[in-house]
Amino acid sequence: MRLITSSVCAALFLTVLASTAGAERPRLLERWREARAERLAGTEAPGAVDLTVGGLDRRYFLLDGRKGNQPAPLVIALHGGGGNGKTMIDRWQTLARQQGIVIAAPNGIGRSERRGTWNASGCCGEAMTRGVDDVAFVQAVIDDVSRKIAIDPKRIYVTGFSNGGMLTHRVAIALGRRIAAAGVVSGAMFGNEARPRGPVPMLIIHGESDNVVGFEGGMSETRFVARAQDKPFLPTRASVDFWKRANGCLGASVTVRRGDVSVESNTSCRGKADVVFYDLAKGGHEWPSGATVDATRLLWDFFKTKAR
Question: Quick check: is 191 in a domain?
C-alpha cells in the first residue's frame, strides 16, 4: 500500500511540475526532494546535531556510513538556497552506506530551519544580509564530527549545490590546507574571492540552460534569486579558470565530448590538484542524477582519488 501511495504521489508531482512555469521549477524540485528526504529520514531527522557558532544556534545532519571503526572519509554536503541539510543526506545516503563514507549536511540560515541560505559574499538572502560567517560554521562542523567519529584527516571533502556551491568555493579557498578536494554543482563565484590558502582539486558541474545561476553569469533570470543577490554571478568559465590559476595548472586542457556532455580535464597542476569541468549542454539548474551524469557518483569518484 505504501508503494502504491508513493507512486501516486510521484505521478501527481510530475503533473504539477509539467504545468509549472520554468522559473519556478527549481524551487518546486527542491521542495519535492526535501519532502522525500523527510519521509526517508523521519520527521525528527535522526542524526541532527546542534552547535553554537559565532553566537548563533546552528544545526547539521550526520550520516555515519562506516562499516567498522576505522577512520573514514568525510564529505561536507551543502544544500541549495531555500533547502536544508536533509536534502543532501537524501542525495548521498545510498552511496555513503555502500562506500563507508561519513556525510555531514549543515543547515543554512533562513526564516525557518527548512529554508536556509548561505553567505557566499554575493548571495544569498538572509545569511548574506546578516553577514553570517558560514565558512567558520563549516570548519566547526568538521571539528565537531572529528570529535564524534573516527575521521581520516587527510580525506575531508566539501561539495555543494547552487548557493551551497557558491559557499563551497569560499570554503575551499579558506580551508585549502585542510580540504582534500571540492566539488561545485550549479554554483558560481563573484570576483571578490581571496587568494586560496593552497591548491585544492576541484570538480565543477554546470548546465548551459541553467536559468537560476546562469552559465554565462550576471544577475539571475529567476526573480527571487536575483533579489537575494547583491553581486552578479561570474560566468562558469571564470570559476574554472580561477581554480586553474590557483592550482598552478600548466599545459593545455584535455576535452572529451560524450553526446551533450563536455568534460574538460586539467591534470598538470601543482600538488596534483586537478581541475575538472563538466559542461552539460542541455543541463538546467539541477543536481544531475541520470545515467549519463550522476553528480553524486562523479563527485565521489573524483574525491576518492584525492588525499591531503
Answer: yes
* Distance, CA of 253 to CA of 246 (rounded, Å): 15
Residues whose CB is less than 8 angstroms from the CB of residue 261 and which lie 6 or more positions away in sequence, other chains included: 278, 279, 280, 281, 292, 293
pLDDT mean over 203-230: 97
Grid cell at residue 252: 593545455
8 A C-beta contact, residue 128 and residue 117: yes
Domain of 131, CATH number, reads 3.40.50.1820
Residue range(s) defining the domain that contains residue 60: 2-303
Specify the pTM: 0.86
Report if residue 45 sits inside a domain: yes
Task: Name the domain count of the chain.
Answer: 1
pLDDT in tens, 240-262: 999 999 999 998 999 999 999 99
Residue 294 domain flag: yes
Q: Using CA atoms, how far apart are residues 283 and 215, in angstroms rounded to an integer? A: 10
